[in-house]
Amino acid sequence: MQSPKLKYAYFPGCVAQGACGELHMSTVSLAQALDIELIELKKASCCGSGTFKEDSQLLEDTVNARNIALAEALNLPLLTHCSTCQGVIGHVDERLKSAQNQQPEYLKKVNNLLQEEGCLPYRGKTDVKHLLYALVQDYSLEAIQQKVSKKLTGLKCAAFYGCYLLRGQKSVSEKNIFYPEAMEDIFRAVGATPIYYEGRTKCCGWPLSSYATTESFQMAGMHIQEAIAAGADCIVTPCPLCHLNLDSRQPEISQVIGQQLELPILHLPQLIALAMGINPQALGLNKHVVSTNPVLSKV
Length: 299
Description:
GO molecular function: oxidoreductase activity
Strand content: 5-15%
Protein name: Putative succinate dehydrogenase cytochrome b subunit
Pfam family, one: CCG
Keywords: Oxidoreductase
Shape: globular
Organism: Richelia intracellularis HH01
Radius of gyration: 19 Å
C-alpha cells in the first residue's frame, strides 16, 4: 500500500528569499522531485532569529504563535529549512504547549494580542519540523535512496549542524546532540562519504559577526580548516545563516586567518537534489561566493 503524499506548511524564512535565494530554489526543486507538497506561508513573518526575546519574550512568542497558527489553519505541520528558524519557532511551540496546562493566563495574553491584530489564535495543534528531519523521519532514508538517479560516489561531505538545530529546543530529533548522525545518514543514502571533524556541532560565528567580526571569522575559519584537514570536498549545512558566514564571508575569513581556503559550502537540499539529477543551475549552485565547480566536477 502506497504511503500518503507528504504535505507541509512551508515557512521559507527571510534569508532563503534574500541573501540565500538558492536555498528556496533548491528546497522547492527537491520537494518536487520527491513529490512532497509545500504550501508556502506567504503571510508569515520573520521569526526574529532569537533577537526579539532580548527585548521581550512575549514579543517573540506572539510573533511566532502567529506563524504557527497559519500552519494550524491548514492542518499541516510547519516546515522550516533554517536551523535558526527551527530553534526559535520550535522552542516557542514547546513553551506555548507547556503554557496550555501550566500558564494558561500567559497563553491567553498571547492570543489576546493576536486577536487584537485580527490574527488566528495559537491552539498547539501542530508540529514544527526542520526539512532534515522531515526527510529522515517522514520520508525515510530508504525512499530517498530509491529516488537517487546520480549517486554522489566519491564526494566527501562534512556536515555543519550549527547551534539552533541541536540546542534550540528542549526536545530534538537526534539521540545524542553531541554526536548527531541525521545528515551523515543522508550523505550515505545519496552515495556520498561522510567526513567527521570536531567543529560540526559548534557555532559558525554568525551571531558574533556584527560586533566581534574578527572573532567570528576566526571561529568560522577554524571549522573550515578542520573540515579541509579531515579530507572534505565540501561542507553541507541545514542553516542559511551558517551558510552566509561560511560561504559568503570565506574570502574575508581567509584574510583574517592568513590562509586561502576555497572550500565549497552547500545547502542540504542542494546536495540531495544533485543526487536526484536536478540541474545545478536550477539549484542555484552558481550563486555561491565560493565556487561549487570542484563539487560538480566530482559528481
